[in-house]
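Good day; I would like, with your permission, to put a structural problem before you. The record follows directly beneath this note:
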Amino acid sequence: MQIYKLNPDIDLAGLMHKLNVDKPGIEIMKKKHSNLIFYIKDISCGAANILKQDALSIGAELAVPIGVPNCKRKIFDALLLCNQKQLEILSKKELSQPFKLKELAKQLKEFITLPKFPLKIMGVINANDDSFFEGSRFQGIEAIKAIEKMIKDGANIIDIGGVSSRPGSEYVGREEELRRVKPIIDEIYRQKLYEKAIFSIDTFDEVVLEYALDRGFKIANDITGLENDNYAKSVAKYDACVVIMHKKGNPKTMQKNPFYENVILEVDDFFKERIEKAKYFGIKDIVLDVGIGFGKRLEDNIALIKHLEHFLHFGYELLIGASRKSMIDMIMKKEKISTIPAERLPGTLAIHIEAFRNGATIIRCHDVAEHFQALRIFEEIRNFDV
């Protein structure tokens, strides 16, 4: 039995219809004000009947398929609808119940108090000629000028990468990667730019990583999500922060027919495993990245953005990086409009503002000034109190 938190701004009636909830029940439940909605996967009939009675006793609801009360099905999916107070009660009440409801209670407890983090903007500098967005490619002194401008424009973090991870790309090797980023890292260190912003190295190679961490960098941005044990050891050695990103497959093949039965739960399982690995190696500072566009279909990307707040239950900051990515073009093609990366800033801002609204607080982008303004305005409006 697994649960995940849904964005309350969904078609609740439509979702209950898909679950085969009886029509009178749908009409009753959709009118109730439930700001917390949890999808429960593979709950047993016995557990569902107990949970439904406990939920009803405190004013909450459990939406189940037709036939569940009579146990015509042994395993099925359900929706728990509740408010904050009801969540607190259920997370305690189910600890004493059978049918694996104790495990459910422990999962629910993780959502009682979700962490809050300050907004940070991460500017992107690509020290290669293969990055999908030409406007992010910089080398030598031009890279330093771009970094200084990003800091002036409001970037808290600067992410430096020497190899492309776009769909279809191939790794150029450690020697070439280091050759590309070394001059920029050296100049950042010489000018002590690390005192003006936090620097992140976008690499999955431990040698490149250590070169950067030894020269003022503080973040290891790893698209493989700590796949390499030696990489994990290096992060721990420098007491650095690691960005654990989810991807399916490798950049060369990851967009060739990716498939998920449930992308939220699969990414959640991945994070759980890699967080345990990080802790095993002594890594304390962790950021999670769902990996938009890395082995994902359009619907997977949208689901992850829509229900991003779910992943806050781990207690770590969430990074979102959808800047100028092809999902924007996929959506616009529904309107019979094709876009190239240079034309996707409006779509990028829309995605990142929605991701910020749903829990992301590190926004990785190419256009720092535009993001700083858009997110700051959104933040001011959202936090306004009459």
Notes: Residues 120-382 form a domain with the TIM Barrel fold (CATH 3.20.20.20). The longest strand covers residues 36-44.
